[in-house]
Design brief:
The strands form two sheets. The chain has a three-stranded mixed beta sheet with strand order 2-1-6, covered by helices on one side. The chain starts with a helix and ends with a strand. The protein has two helices and six strands. The chain has one domain: hypothetical protein PF0899 fold (2-Layer Sandwich). By secondary structure, the protein is of the alpha+beta class. Keywords: Metal-binding, Nickel, Zinc. It holds the Pfam family HypA. This is Hydrogenase maturation nickel metallochaperone HypA.
């Protein structure tokens, strides 16, 4: 969360805004993020800072895969996708991750 808030500060300075209203952070199901821990860290880090009073919106991205053999894209709740068969062609474990990894600063809302 410290890195996310550093990015927020840089963007606010770049766009010459002073009051942070909210940020939206997206994180993938494969990133092993614990949403409550992220929210707690945000609360602690912003409490007595220039970001005090800002709201944190967390959005969890589901796992979206694309088959490397037939190019079929699909969404799954199965994190262990290595042994998953493509719903279209039946190929096992040969997928590109389209969505569901990492953590991203998606949106900043601020006032001048």
């Amino acid at each position: 969360m410290t890195n996310v808030l550093e990015l927020v500060a840089q963007e606010m300075e770049k766009h010459k805004v002073a009051k942070l209203r909210s940020i939206t952070v997206r994180y993938g199901v494969l990133s092993n993020i614990v949403a409550d821990s992220l929210a707690f860290a945000f609360e602690v880090l912003t409490k007595d800072s220039e970001f005090a009073g800002a709201k944190l919106n967390l959005v969890k991205d589901e796992l979206a895969l694309k088959c490397r053999l037939c190019s079929h894209s699909f969404i799954t709740d199965q994190k262990d996708y290595f042994f998953l068969a493509c719903p279209k062609c039946g190929e096992e474990g040969s997928f590109e991750i389209v969505k569901g990894e990492g953590i991203f600063l998606d949106r900043i809302e601020a006032d001048e």
